[in-house]
Amino acid sequence: MQVSSLCVAKFPLSVKAQLPTLKTQESMATAPKWAQKTIALPPYKRGCHLVTPKIAKEIEQDLSGFKCGLAHLFLQHTSASLTINENYDTDVRDDTETFLNRIVPEGPSAPWKHTLEGHDDMPAHIKSSMFGCALTIPITDGKLNMGTWQGIWLCEHRDHPTSRRVVVTLNGI
Amino acid sequence: MQVSSLCVAKFPLSVKAQLPTLKTQESMATAPKWAQKTIALPPYKRGCHLVTPKIAKEIEQDLSGFKCGLAHLFLQHTSASLTINENYDTDVRDDTETFLNRIVPEGPSAPWKHTLEGHDDMPAHIKSSMFGCALTIPITDGKLNMGTWQGIWLCEHRDHPTSRRVVVTLNGI
Amino acid sequence: MQVSSLCVAKFPLSVKAQLPTLKTQESMATAPKWAQKTIALPPYKRGCHLVTPKIAKEIEQDLSGFKCGLAHLFLQHTSASLTINENYDTDVRDDTETFLNRIVPEGPSAPWKHTLEGHDDMPAHIKSSMFGCALTIPITDGKLNMGTWQGIWLCEHRDHPTSRRVVVTLNGI
């Protein structure tokens, strides 16, 4: 594997070299780091929403300290989802919501047993497992290394908007 | 990023501080750790099953040593899946199985070419990619940091129950 | 958690032991490492394709240096996907493509607003979120620790084949 010099680190090599002297700021920067934070996203109406700016704002300062690593986003809910998709045209988010509503039956004719929490609840659970509640994104040179057209979506599957918690875990060097 | 003091670690800082003296148990606890284990889940009948207690029992002792990190669960099969969803009402699991069977054709009228391993095999492969075979869950203060209503589901997509292997990898401080 | 001696490491223990002497090659091997590389997959026609050999060839040399860890694959696109599924019978890949085309409407009768980039574009975005654009796979003893029948698939959802970028991040000991 050809790897950029930026993102390869075998930590003890630098420790070894430093033993007789003081650590420099530079060598410190290559050490493994962990950071974890719970973000509260504001309530969004049912549908797919681009939340890259909101997420980035919360973590960009810490991200800047990582030359190479992984960012993990974990939504602590079972009736919404996180996915990565197109970041430009809002029609793509609307069409995706249209698809989800077409594919998952809802209302009186739906075959669900779990109906106590509302007609939109069981469909929301299914959509949550279809798209998933977690994302792992590479960090490169202090930034989320997504493609040009990729963005982070929060998909709210319930009718009633509520705040949603995301546990962000950063790990890298 | 505002991070709790619990979960931020820049490892070499503590190493540096310890050089002149013996390491204490406390400082050791902040060092990067890796653990990996293969768990065999017992055979489950076709459908969705809550396996949080079984998984937790296998890893809780090791988990307790991590203040902050990530737990990765990897199902080594292509006809079952792992997902995170509601942990309370068994109807939610039943309804999800109902949905999967509605959306993926099965039996003589299904359009599959791959039929040698049984009518339930090709649908099982599709369902496995729909929900996925892996989960990554944040670890916080020695526990899986899922939401109140979240649980780990094993979804068995084959008719004949078989034991399923899950490779668990823990990484953190 | 019973863990194999191979894959458990509490890094500072070895550092501590080494302080008075030189590090040996053996002890170095247990240190946390990160590597990251962007791979360009060649253009594939619309459908599901087994890319395990191509991915493995690109990373196998680096992989061999990890006794225990995680490999993260991140596709930087929103109209293709990565999934893990059956690695033997090409019919399984064909049938999965058949399923995706059945479930996501395409063409003049489809309900999409986002049509400027072609009739296959909006369906491609939806399929990308259904299967996802990222995989995390355990590394054990220098190899991707997948099940016997598991393989990495690139699913190309556009009609026109284009090269696809995958950011691979390796982390472990």
Automatic annotation (TrEMBL), chains A, B, C:
Stretches that traverse the bilayer: none
Domain of life (superkingdom): Eukaryota
UniProt cross-references to InterPro entries, sorted A to Z: UPF0047_YjbQ-like, YjbQ-like_sf
Pfam family name, one: YjbQ
Entries under SUPFAM superfamilies matching the protein: YjbQ-like
Designated name of the protein: Secondary thiamine-phosphate synthase enzyme
